[in-house]
Amino acid sequence: MSSGTEMNAESSKWLDAHYDPVANLYTFSSCIDLADLNGDGENRLVIGDLGTGSSNMKLKVYRGTALMNESTLLDLPTGLVSFLMDLHEPRIPAIAVASGPFIYVYKNLRPYFKFTLPSLEINALEQDVWQQAREGQIDPLALKELLEGIRDTADVPLSVRSLRYLGLETQDMEEFVSLHKQQPIRRQTVITCIGTLKKSSADEDGVSCLVIGTESNDVYILDPEAFTILSKLSLPSAPTMMDVTGQFDVEFRITVACRNGNIYILRRESSKPKYCIELSSHPVGLVRVGKNVVVGCAEERLYGFTQKGKKLWTAQLPAPITTMATMDLPTRGFQAVLVGLANCEVHLYRDKNLVSTIKSPDVVTGLRFGRYGREDGALVMTTKGGGLAVKILKRTATFDERDAAPGPPPAQSVRLNVPKKTKLYVDQTLREREHATAMHRAFQMDLSRVRLAAAQAYVRALEASLTPMSANPAAPLKLNAVVQGLGPAFKLTLNVQNTAASRPILNLTVSFLYDGGLYSMRTPYFRIPLLVPGLVYPFETLVECTSDKGISDVIKVFVLHDGKTAPLLTAHINMPVSEGLALE
Q1: What residue ranges in 342-374 does DSSP mark as E strands?
Q2: Cβ partners under 8 Å of residue 554, min gap 6
Q3: Which one of 239, 309, 330, 361 has the fewest beta carbons within 10 angstroms of its own beta carbon?
Q4: Rounded-to-integer distance, Cα 46 and Cα 80, Å
Q5: What are the E-state strand segments in 131-177?
Q6: Distance between CA 297 and CA 315 in Å, rounded?
Q7: Cα-trace Rg, the chain
């Protein structure tokens, strides 16, 4: 009953505007964007369709529920962004599609410019080998052997042509050499991710630069008008996802998830990463919410980090992550993270709190939240089976801030109100810093005096026989005496224990020394049988007080070996006052 009520509450927040299960859209979140392509205030949905993976790749534009335009792409798209490249009126954004080593820029839905990544350094030995093959100095088999040797030892990787040649069968090598030997060798990298960075103004209609990550571990920032490289940043590994914030002319941060499982943060003042976040598993999603970075990992967990890489919180997910996107509603001041899961659900997290769950008929592979048409709160979802779904957030929808996921209470993440440092604390710190050596020496002197006093007290206790433990390692014994009774007759019980690990003790006797004018004992001397290690042996005797003066004395106990005069263990028993004779 409660689950049905919860599902009704979640569905009441969203309107199902459109769902087409056979839209034949195969894409990811990085290839989906919402942009006002005509300058009429009505946003269109722009999607880079992967097609079959080898053919039918297209750039599709939707208006409402209808396909408005489509253009053929020459290669698989790896990313798609909309950006303003100039200040000309009307302010219509361009579309940049990253595909292979190229960026195709569309303006007014027409091809406008094609940017090619700069070529990489070519191995000099590889060039010499192909030059010899061009002149006929080596045969195809010798060419293969030389290229294999270069691949195993050279610092600069081989070109795509040489790698393809090494994978050929012997009968196909000669044809390949004759076809390509006259062409120059080129080593080209490819684009792995793309984003945008405001150039000088943080306004929504400000001009933006393109930021691209490449397979060669580099990040390029491109000028929006001339498409020249403004800055080149280096990474330890190939980037897979990125998030960009700030302005190029002022200050910016580029948060990059790399293939080695780490996240690096690049800043304007350095071409190398400023901070590094090491994760326990590979990242599969990366978004920014306010000043924090939210990372989804392959181990079905969501992590929150600060801009400097400090971990803030962790949330456990019920299924693997398929995609992630940011949900930003400036009119309500609401920011959250949309997480698509493999169990056909989309979870909405604000910090580590699960505030909403959206059911989907299929596994969601692409998410984009923003203004679609004239609706500000539109959520576009693409599914694994090629479907397209559009949901609209109701204007009356509210999200409960309570923590719907199991885990520690929210109060645990509240920072303690640590008081400020007082002047006394600062003065004490300075004094300790300036006189550290003298304070350490004084501490060591006091510690030595305490140790000396403890040793002297122990020696006095041994000499006065005030301890019931034997100091002789040949006979490790423990003695405990208990006196029972009010008088004049007392029952004295001696509990003797062998504290050795495995060796029994033989031939022991117990003798008592007391004042004969005060006490008389029934058994002042008796033998102790064999003592097994670990067991406690009780021995009882009766003591009778013969004095009527109401005084008491000490009875000494000696444990000896047969035929020896030196005791192994001594103890003092303080006898109580005999109440029976004192009343007389």
Answers
A1: 345-350, 353-359, 364-372
A2: 572, 573, 574, 575
A3: 330
A4: 8
A5: none
A6: 11
A7: 43
d(CA 567, CA 523): 19
Instruction: Report the residue count for the chain.
Output: 584
Q: Which structure tokens are listed for 7? A: 């599902």
User: Which residues on neighbouring strands pair with residue 59, listed in sequence order?
Assistant: 48, 71
CA distance 59 to 71: 5
Q: Which three-class secondary structure state does DSSP give residue 518?
A: coil
List the 388-393 sheet strands across, edge first: 14-20, 388-393, 375-383, 364-372
The span from the CA of 569 to the CA of 510, in Å, is 10
CA distance 359 to 23: 19
Which residue from 152, 150, 142, 131 is spatially nearest to 173, judged by alpha carbons? 142
Cα–Cα dist 326/310, whole Å? 20
In the block, residue with structure tokens 């943060």:
265
Query: For each of the chain's 584 residues, which pLDDT tens digit applies?
Result: 344 444 445 557 888 889 988 888 899 999 999 998 888 888 899 999 988 877 888 899 998 888 888 888 888 899 999 998 888 888 889 999 998 889 999 988 888 888 988 888 887 888 888 888 888 788 888 888 888 888 877 777 777 888 888 888 888 888 888 887 778 888 888 899 999 999 888 888 889 999 999 988 899 999 888 888 888 898 988 999 999 998 888 888 899 999 988 999 888 878 788 788 888 889 999 998 888 899 999 988 999 998 888 888 888 899 999 999 999 888 888 889 999 999 999 999 988 888 888 999 999 999 999 989 888 889 999 999 989 999 998 888 887 665 444 556 666 667 777 777 788 888 888 888 999 999 999 999 999 999 999 999 877 766 655 555 554 555 688 888 888 888 788 888 888 888 888 888 888 888 888 888 888 888 888 888 888 888 888 988 899 888 877 788 888 888 888 877 778 778 888 888 776 543 33
Distance (Å, whole) CA 471 – CA 405? 62
Say which amino acid occupies 109.
L
For residue 515, the 8-state DSSP code is -
Measure the CA–CA gap between 244 and 257, rounded to whole angstroms.
12
